[in-house]
Structures are given as structure tokens and as C-alpha cells.
Amino acid sequence: MMVLSCPWCGPRNVTEFRYGGERRARPEVETVSAQQWRRFLYAKSNPLGTVAESWYHRAGCRRYFAVERDTATNSHHAHRAQGAT
After folding, report:
1. What is the pLDDT of residues 16-31, one digit of tens each?
2. Which of 1, 2, 30, 74 is disulfide-compatible with 14, CB 3.0–4.6 A?
3. End-to-end CA separation in angstroms for the chain
């Protein structure tokens, strides 16, 4: 069982959350090519090591938050997402 720590609700079973994906810069819609947009949507880097991710606490506070997670050990550090209250 993996436990994820919500910045607002505290530690919870990971089944309460929805994975939001890697946190990365979104391309400019006005200037991006179709190939670049497809790569942004579907090509994931899947590195071994620390990854910045977004998670949504669907069974709790219903807020998004950022997590820095080590993909090798699943150890993580959660912090509130930008603009979240």
C-alpha cells in the first residue's frame, strides 16, 4: 500500500487520489505544431529518479497539489500547487 500525504488532509491511502501526470511546461497553443502537441499529450519521459507530478485528492478535499516523487523508491514530498487555496 502506498500512502500519499495531502498538504491539506494529511497522509491517506493512494486509492483516494487521482494521478494528474508529470508537471511540465505546456506549449504555446498559438505557435505549437501538431507534432509538438501530440508529443506533449502522449509522450511521457518516465525517468528513474525524482519527478514533479500533479495529484488530485478526489476522496478528500478535492484539490490538486504537487508532489516530488522518486520513481525508484516511491518516497515523496508534497506541497500545495500554485494558485491553490
Report:
1. 999 998 998 899 989 9
2. 2
3. 29
Give the model's pLDDT for residue 81.
Answer: 62
**What are the b/e assignments for 14-42, b being 16+ CB within 10 Å?**
eebbeeeeeeeeeeeeeeeeeeeeeeeee
CATH of the domain at 74: 3.30.2270.10
Assigned domain for 85 exists: no
Residue 15 belongs to some domain of the structure: yes
